[in-house]
Amino acid sequence: HGLDHAGRLHRLDDVARVLVDFNSVVKRGDLLAEIDPMLLGAQVQQQQAQLAAQRAGLAGSEARLTTARVNLERTKMLRGENLVSQLDLDQAQGQYDVARADVAQIKAQIGASSAGITAAGANLSYTKIYAPIDGVVTDRQIDEGQTVAASFQAPVLFVIAEDLRKMRVFADVDEADVGKLTEGMSAEAQVDAFPGERFQGKVGQVRFSPNSVQGVVTYMAVIEVDNPERKLRPGMTSTVTVRTREARQASRLPNAALRFKPTPDKGPDGKPLPKPPEKALEAGTGRIYLQTDTTPGAEKIEPRVVKVGVTDGVNTALLEPLPPGSKVVVDETDDKDAKKRGGPRVF
Predict the structure, then answer these.
(1) Can you give the residue range of the structural domain that contains 13?
(2) In a domain, 136, yes or no
(3) What is the pLDDT of residues 73-101, one digit of tens each?
(4) What's the pLDDT at 107?
(5) Is residue 266 within 8 Å of 337, Cβ to Cβ?
(6) Among 274, 315, 329, 335, which residue's CB has the most CB atoms within a 10 Å radius?
(7) Cα–Cα nearest to 264, from 250, 280, 277, 279
(8) Is residue 212 domain-shared with residue 235, that is, in the same domain?
(9) Residue 178 is part of a domain; what is its CATH number?
(10) Residue 141 shares a structural domain with residue 116
(11) Residue 164: which residues within 8 A CB-CB, separation 6 or more?
């Protein structure tokens, strides 16, 4: 997969224009599509008109508040000279309080309308879908004239791959092997579309979250792979090889040679003769058998303990030299056909 980003829509409307197609190369800020702005533009105008009316109403309310304040001050002065009754003073105070409350209410309405204009403007801006990054359009899910809707989840209109020259391969690693992986190890990816070609990369992340399918536990490793010629495509299935250890200029032994155990000799009664138990091997060593006599029908072999190193599951590095011309036994045959020769099969 590449690094994907999606253009999303936040409401229901008709698509007026689509300016890009599959595989289009886009730059950040490029216009990808435009939604019909008529309805949302009308909502912005409606909010603006409502705000203008409220501001005009605020001017009238502030004028009435000024009049009520002057009337209250005059009434207080006259009441101090006992020229008006207490009832007249109470009425003037009430008119002032009502006028002040009206002003506060209209100011709150103006604040709500301003927020409504901001929201309507934001919705109007969503009618233009811009590219959030530089990249290539890998998926387009809308056409001109199509109605798209957003409910609980915004629908995806476009998928843009940021840089197809850098790909991520998500590999499932068996739990028995995950302990051998660390970030930064070199890796190779192969795909069926390009047989024999290896794409170089490295381990970018080994995730702790397990995946269990029918009792098989794996862990996801993210492999960062170079794709300079853009041959790899999102969604391809690949086989990944990670170099956990490496041995250079080393002799190799087939793992079959390390597993080989000769068939015990048989006694007169045809049953295998008992043999003394073999000595336990130390860490980093293995037991092999060398053929010492190649006479047909009378071949002889002898065991030898050797130092071994890393293995790839098929071959193992041999860390000490063998005598020149040594023949290592990997298997044995017991052919009765006279045209075939039985005995040890060597490497």
Answers:
(1) 8-33+130-159
(2) yes
(3) 999 999 888 888 999 999 999 999 999 99
(4) 93
(5) no
(6) 329
(7) 277
(8) yes
(9) 2.40.30.170
(10) no
(11) 2, 135, 136, 227, 230, 232, 233, 234
* Positive or negative torsion for Cα 75, 81, 83, 89: positive
Three-class secondary structure of residue 272 per DSSP: strand
In 3-state terms, what secondary structure has residue 268? Answer: coil
Whether 146 and 14 have beta carbons less than 8 Å apart is answered as yes
- Whether 1 is in a domain gets the answer no
Tokens representing residue 210 in the block: 């397990």
Contact 13, 126 (CB under 8 A): no
Q: In what order do the strands lie in the sheet with 135-140?
A: 4-8, 156-161, 135-140, 25-26
Which amino acid, 337?
A: D
The list of the chain residues with pLDDT below 70 reads: 1-13, 149-153, 334-347
Q: What's the structural domain count of the chain?
A: 4
Contact 134, 24 (CB under 8 A): no
255 close to 315: Cβ distance less than 8 angstroms: yes
pTM above 0.70, yes or no: no
